[in-house]
Specification:
Layout lengths: L7 H17 L5 H13 L6 H4 E5 L3 E7 H12 L29 H16 L9 E7 L9 H6 L45 H4 L1
Antiparallel strand pairs: 1-2, 2-3
Helix pairs in contact: 1-2, 2-4
Pfam families: PARG_cat_N
Organism: Fopius arisanus
Protein name: PARG protein
């Protein structure tokens, strides 16, 4: 008798995914996404983490650069909650990024919208062009010696660049030639609550 080579965590989540498709009305592409998730999960056998992630840490700058295809690998593993559980007690500065608690709140419309966006993102990752380049997350610290005083502003002869501040509108409607800085309010714990029932700017954007 032949045995299934599908990992047990995928078998356990298969029925969950089918129920999700009914809840969020994504049954038209969910089976395809399931295959995509399984395919990406298998990529973990060949992708070398040290080559996919580089970091720079100092007292003033913290930067983390990761390959885009590494994200394609990590997201399915997060979705199926294959990482060790983290708590505030065991990891005060790093939250639990498994989707374990995500599915508890699928009765909320906001949570259904999050899930629909996540599945559509997996569909986007099937495009080869989506896997090019790297993603850089950095934190820059300005010391008090670098702060400008009122006198510095008054004595400066350097012209200021044009600046337009908008509180409404959509990013996709902005002219592509315009340089835009999108500001989102974030908590001290980056992404806190986004995988639960919290509705904040981090989970929306």
């Amino acid at each position: 008798m032949k045995t299934s080579k599908t990992p047990i965590f995928l078998l356990a989540y298969q029925s969950t995914l089918m129920r999700i498709s009914v809840l969020v009305n994504v049954s038209s592409y969910l089976p395809r996404q399931y295959r995509v998730l399984w395919k990406e999960q298998r990529h973990s056998e060949v992708l070398n983490l040290p080559r996919g992630c580089t970091s720079v840490f100092s007292s003033k700058v913290i930067a983390l650069s990761t390959r885009t295809d590494l994200h394609r690998l990590l997201l399915p593993m997060l979705f199926f909650s294959t990482y060790p559980k983290r708590t505030i007690k065991t990891h005060p500065t790093l939250g639990d990024f498994n989707f374990t608690n995500f599915f508890k709140h699928l009765h909320l419309n906001s949570q259904k919208a999050k899930l629909s966006s996540i599945l559509q993102y997996f569909e986007f990752l099937e495009n080869d062009s989506a896997l090019e380049g790297r993603m850089v997350v950095s934190r820059q610290v300005m010391t008090s010696k670098q702060w400008l005083t009122i006198e510095d502003w008054l004595e400066s002869s350097v012209p200021l660049c044009p600046l337009s501040i908008r509180h409404t509108g959509r990013m996709e409607r902005i002219d592509t030639d315009t340089k835009v800085l999108h500001v989102c309010f974030a908590s001290s714990r980056f992404g806190d609550g986004a995988l639960e029932d919290v509705i904040n700017q981090e989970s929306v954007h």
